[in-house]
Amino acid sequence: MVRITVDDNLCKGCGLCARNCPKKIIDISKTVLNAKGYRPAEITDTDACIACAACARTCPDIAIRIEKD
Protein backbone atom coordinates (compact mmCIF):
# COMPACT_ATOMS: atom_id res chain seq x y z
CA MET A 1 0.00 0.00 0.00
CA VAL A 2 1.16 3.51 -0.78
CA ARG A 3 0.66 6.58 1.35
CA ILE A 4 1.18 9.97 -0.26
CA THR A 5 1.01 13.15 1.78
CA VAL A 6 1.27 16.81 0.92
CA ASP A 7 2.47 19.24 3.59
CA ASP A 8 -0.11 22.00 3.19
CA ASN A 9 2.12 24.49 5.00
CA LEU A 10 4.98 24.03 2.50
CA CYS A 11 2.96 23.70 -0.72
CA LYS A 12 2.53 26.86 -2.81
CA GLY A 13 0.10 25.27 -5.26
CA CYS A 14 2.37 25.67 -8.28
CA GLY A 15 0.81 22.61 -9.96
CA LEU A 16 4.04 20.93 -11.08
CA CYS A 17 3.09 17.77 -9.23
CA ALA A 18 -0.34 17.65 -10.87
CA ARG A 19 1.15 18.14 -14.34
CA ASN A 20 3.75 15.41 -13.83
CA CYS A 21 1.53 12.76 -12.25
CA PRO A 22 1.06 9.95 -14.81
CA LYS A 23 -2.18 8.84 -13.11
CA LYS A 24 -3.56 12.42 -12.87
CA ILE A 25 -4.62 11.96 -9.25
CA ILE A 26 -3.31 15.30 -7.95
CA ASP A 27 -5.23 18.56 -8.15
CA ILE A 28 -4.90 22.00 -6.63
CA SER A 29 -7.42 22.54 -3.86
CA LYS A 30 -10.37 24.74 -4.66
CA THR A 31 -11.43 25.13 -1.02
CA VAL A 32 -8.36 24.97 1.24
CA LEU A 33 -5.97 27.86 1.84
CA ASN A 34 -2.79 27.36 3.83
CA ALA A 35 -1.36 29.85 6.33
CA LYS A 36 0.46 31.72 3.55
CA GLY A 37 -2.68 32.06 1.44
CA TYR A 38 -1.80 29.42 -1.17
CA ARG A 39 -4.08 26.65 -2.39
CA PRO A 40 -2.13 23.44 -1.74
CA ALA A 41 -2.14 20.31 -3.85
CA GLU A 42 -4.40 17.47 -2.81
CA ILE A 43 -4.58 13.82 -3.72
CA THR A 44 -7.88 12.89 -5.36
CA ASP A 45 -7.45 9.09 -5.45
CA THR A 46 -4.84 7.62 -3.13
CA ASP A 47 -5.64 4.05 -4.20
CA ALA A 48 -4.63 4.83 -7.79
CA CYS A 49 -1.14 6.00 -6.80
CA ILE A 50 1.62 3.81 -8.25
CA ALA A 51 4.38 5.36 -6.09
CA CYS A 52 6.41 6.54 -9.07
CA ALA A 53 7.40 9.67 -7.08
CA ALA A 54 7.16 11.95 -10.14
CA CYS A 55 5.25 14.43 -8.00
CA ALA A 56 7.81 14.43 -5.18
CA ARG A 57 10.76 14.75 -7.56
CA THR A 58 9.28 17.80 -9.29
CA CYS A 59 8.09 19.61 -6.15
CA PRO A 60 10.32 22.66 -5.67
CA ASP A 61 9.20 23.00 -2.05
CA ILE A 62 9.77 19.36 -1.03
CA ALA A 63 6.18 19.28 0.21
CA ILE A 64 5.29 15.76 -0.97
CA ARG A 65 6.16 12.51 0.78
CA ILE A 66 5.54 9.02 -0.58
CA GLU A 67 5.73 5.98 1.67
CA LYS A 68 5.36 2.33 0.70
CA ASP A 69 4.27 -0.31 3.17
Count of individual beta strands: 4
Treating each run of at least 4 consecutive H or I residues as one helix, how many helices? 2
Give me the side-by-side strand order of the main sheet. Answer: 1-4
Can you give the helix content as a percent range?
Answer: 10-25%
Enumerate the spans where pLDDT stays under 50 for 5 or more consecutive residues: none
Kindly describe this structure.
The protein is of the alpha+beta class. Helix content is 14%, strand content 23%. It has two helices and four strands, in the order βαββαβ. The strands form two sheets. The protein has a two-stranded antiparallel ribbon with strand order 1-4. A two-stranded antiparallel ribbon has the order 2-3. The chain is globular, with a radius of gyration of 11 Å.
Labels describing this entry:
globular; 69 residues; two-stranded antiparallel sheet; alpha+beta; 2 helices; single chain
Could you give a short description of this structure?
The chain is of the alpha+beta class and 69 residues long. The protein has helices at residues 16-20, 54-58; strands at 2-6, 26-28, 41-43, 64-68. It contains two helices and four strands, in the order E-H-E-E-H-E.
